[in-house]
Amino acid sequence: MKEETWQSTACILCSINCGIKVQVEEGKFVRIQGDKNHPASKGYLCQKAARLDHYQNHNSRLTHPLRKKPDGSFEKIDWDTAIREVAEKLAHIRDTYGGHSIAYYGGGGQGNHLGGAYSGSLRKALGTPYIYNSLAQEKTGDFWVNGKLFGRQTCHISEDIEEADYAIIIGANPWQAHGFPRARKVLQEISKDPKRTLVVVDPRRTRTAELADIHLQVKPGMDAFLIAAMLGVIVQEGLEDKDFLEKRTLGFSELADLLQKIPVEDYAQRAGIEVDLLRKVARGFASASCASSRHDLGVEHSLHSTLNTYLEKLLCLITGNFGKKGGNNLHTQFVPLIGHSKDPSEGGATTKVTGMKEISKFFPPNILPAEIDTDHPERVRAVFVDSSNPLQSAADTKAYQKAFSKLDLLVVIDVAETETTEMADYILPACSQYEKWEATFFSLSFPTNYFHLRRPITPLKGNTLPEPEIYFRLLVALGAIPAKFPFLEAFARLHRRFPKRNLLSKALALTIALRPGLKPYLTTVLYASLGKALPQKAQAASIIWGTSHFYAKRYAKQVKRAGFSDGEELFNFILENDTGVAISTHTFEEMWQLVAYPDQKIRLAIPEMLTELADLSEEKEITNSAEYPFILAAGERRSYNANQIYRNPAWRKNDPEGALRIHPKDLKNLGFQDGEHIACQSAHGSITVCLQSDDSMREGALSLPHGYGMSYWDSETKERKQNGPSLNLLTTADHCDPLAKTPYHKYIPVRLLAIK
Ligand SMILES: Nc1nc2c(c(=O)[nH]1)N[C@H]1C(S)=C(S)[C@@H](COP(=O)(O)OP(=O)(O)OC[C@H]3O[C@@H](n4cnc5c(=O)[nH]c(N)nc54)[C@H](O)[C@@H]3O)O[C@H]1N2
Ligand SMILES: Nc1nc2c(c(=O)[nH]1)N[C@H]1C(S)=C(S)[C@@H](COP(=O)(O)OP(=O)(O)OC[C@H]3O[C@@H](n4cnc5c(=O)[nH]c(N)nc54)[C@H](O)[C@@H]3O)O[C@H]1N2
Ligand code: SF4
Ligand SMILES: [Mo]
Fold first, then answer.
1. Would 482 be classed as within a structural domain?
2. pLDDT tens digit string along 27-60?
3. 304 φ/ψ angles, rounded to the nearest 5 degrees
């Protein structure tokens, strides 16, 4: 095939969104390679991207709007009917019970955030205060801590593992899960370099741990003790960076009082780590010329979730490895993915039924069934889902099934038939991420940040629509905005011809002055006006015009450094470029401007966290229960899982059943065989799994993979089948962090039984 038939886009399977080039033949992705021109991924790919045709082409793709019939089956309807009926029903629920009786869930996955950017208009028209999404079942504890440390929950940290002399990775497996660009290359480089040190904290000897200089094989769920002990060593031995603490932080002495008292040996033992090795790591980290730390689900989805993320951040903060190359740094957000919510004591929002607080503008999936399945007069009665499959991915599948069956209305936008669309009253089919303009807002890098606007590379299938169009049509049907904006459209066209005159901003300001009711819907108004003036049907990109201007104003110097004189130039470059773009470059000194407190000082002492840290010493040692003697990590990232994105198991090259990994000694003691099918039972549910003997496991610990258990159509038998274990049949909503409600998925007590 000719060179020019390669089209640029990105992999949509994890937050890194590596640039890829694809050759498409008759709708099939026949060749896929890394895009060397992408400035962040530089041609890098992992094995999963080669299988992307299984996302684009499979027999569970949705091709037509569907409405549920009274008998539970679905019938095809046209878009006008779908939009009209959904709008009418939503409006009825809003007008009868209030906006808080409607919840929005999702808004984007690993590859698609452009559509969700237009969903804000719909939420405003419905008056719903609730956004539930998957970030709020992993990262909101972390965001809450950031809010306290740096002044706003939008202050988010990036880890410069690539440049670090000493890197510590706690509860993350970047070899499989990534989490930072070109992870495998970076890990291999550090591993090979005798002058650099890599430490991995993980109960399992993962590939990442194998590459490490030091592997701390922590007892599941005991990271708070381990990190607290490391911080204890640093402070007790006077290894903290006193100049940094004096210049950049407040509250250290209060924190230090607690850390001085940490019984290091006792905590090391609680964590199952030899104390001398722990001391060595603490000293190595504190004395390195630059050190970086990174955590992920291994600690977020486990006991003391929020506290763990606080303690992990303190490693860099008290050793002065913050705001420098090879350390941790705050970064900018090109399009805000994370928001800021006030605490309830300052007037922040809470839910009506359970009283849960909002964090970073989100509410946690763990509480949603309780908000629905109750006779509370202010319960949630309608849910609007986009790009998420909570019926599989949220804790406690059965509670979700029960709660969702009680809803007055469930509307789902997806590209595929899912467990969640099965329960919907209306299914609105979106075109795939390779059939529309798309982007993610995972711009999480420092000092240079990137953005990639992707174009469609293949025609859309069936009667599907891009999400921005669905949101626009719903807004018009709700009567929130007119269907056409002739005045603005004319100015938008003029603006595209004479951008220097700034005509569009002026026309927008005039429109809003004359019709203030349109203000909440500005993004959709832009879509309906500027969107039509953009080349190559890039209507959905209109929001990027607004964000480019905003970003270039806020970070003028840094955007200039990346080569753009203003927002218009930045926008046009993004629009015309088919790969990633470097949008801004900061100096390390300028990072301090990203701290949101006016004095730019980090507040180290967070009262709630200090209490939880102090209480660790009182915490009873957990002895495994006789009834449920194993600790299951319910959701490991492996070579062939990718959230809920690939349905058909044919994409997998190994591990077709998503085996349960168990240490050979445990297997022997139980009298089971490698490959045997048995029942894995928690106090809440039971699933059938296939055993795999694996000496990389810690004894007493088990692991099952995330990203299995979805239903699909078997093309031979034409039956609906399930592709491996459905983990959330084992999990419950109340087994979670008290502060952020993040589930303890890595700490599920279970037993293994023979199947009779
Ligand atoms: N291949 C693949 N990659 C993915 C995804 C995918 O589905 N597949 N999903 C993406 C998403 S949405 C996310 S959020 C990230 C998550 O990325 P990660 O958090 O890195 O992935 P996990 O494998 O869930 O968990 C990381 C490690 O935590 C360890 N662990 C278990 N219990 C404990 C514990 O008590 N303490 C410690 N310290 N470690 C523990 C596990 O052994 C595992 O190696 O991955 C992303 N990347
Ligand atoms: N037990 C357990 N549960 C877990 C985890 C775990 O480790 N253990 N991990 C958790 C984590 S970290 C995460 S992030 C979640 C992920 O779980 P979810 O939030 O459910 O998100 P995804 O799996 O990314 O994808 C959801 C849906 O997006 C759809 N989709 C794909 N492309 C498009 C598109 O262009 N438009 C639309 N509208 N839809 C599209 C897919 O078909 C899929 O149904 O799972 C969580 N659940
Ligand atoms: S799954 Fe692999 S190829 Fe795809 S974005 Fe993530 S790291 Fe890149
Ligand atoms: Mo995630």
1. no
2. 999 999 999 999 999 999 999 999 999 999 999 9
3. 60, 35
SS3 636: strand
Lowest mean pLDDT among 361-365, 417-421, 647-651: 647-651
CA pair distance 525, 269, nearest whole angstrom: 60
CA distances for 85 relative to 65, 285, 343, 621, angstroms: 12, 60, 37, 56
| Nearest ligand 3 atom to alpha carbon 178 | 7
Question: From CA 476, how far away is CA 472, in angstroms rounded?
Answer: 6
Report the pLDDT value the prediction gives residue 294, as an integer from 0 to 100: 98
Give yes or no for a contact between 609 and 307, defined as CB atoms under 8 angstroms apart: yes
pTM equals: 0.98
Sheet holding 6-10, edge to edge: 6-10, 19-25, 28-34
Q: Are residues 186 and 326 in the same domain?
A: yes
Which residue is closest in CA terms to ligand 3's atom 2? 46
Place 1 in a pLDDT band, splitting at 50, 70 and 90: low
CATH number, domain of 46, equals 2.20.25.90
What is the distance in A from the centroid of ligand 4 to the CA of 135?
A: 6
Residue 625: the pLDDT is 83
Residue 465: partners with Cβ closer than 8 Å, 6 or more residues away = 79, 428, 429, 430, 431, 473
- Domain presence at residue 250: yes
Q: Are residues 280 and 184 in the same domain?
A: yes
231 and 362 together in one domain: no
Note the pLDDT tens digit of each residue in 425-478.
999 999 999 999 999 999 999 999 999 999 999 999 999 999 999 999 999 999
Residue 666 sits in the same domain as residue 748? yes
One domain, residues 253 and 360: no
Q: Are residues 200 and 113 in the same domain?
A: no
Provide the domain limits for residue 702: 623-754
Domains identified in the chain, total number? 4
Q: Is the CB of 703 under 6 A from ligand 2?
A: no
Atom 4, ligand 2: residue with shortest CA distance: 393
- Write the single-letter amino acid at 239: L
Instruction: Give the count of beta carbons closer than 10 Å to the beta carbon of residue 494.
Output: 15
Q: Are strands 630-636 and 748-754 parallel, antiparallel or unpaired?
A: antiparallel
The one-letter amino acid code at 322 reads F
pLDDT exceeds 70 at position 3: no
Q: What local confidence, expressed as pLDDT, does residue 722 receive?
A: 94
Length of the chain: 756
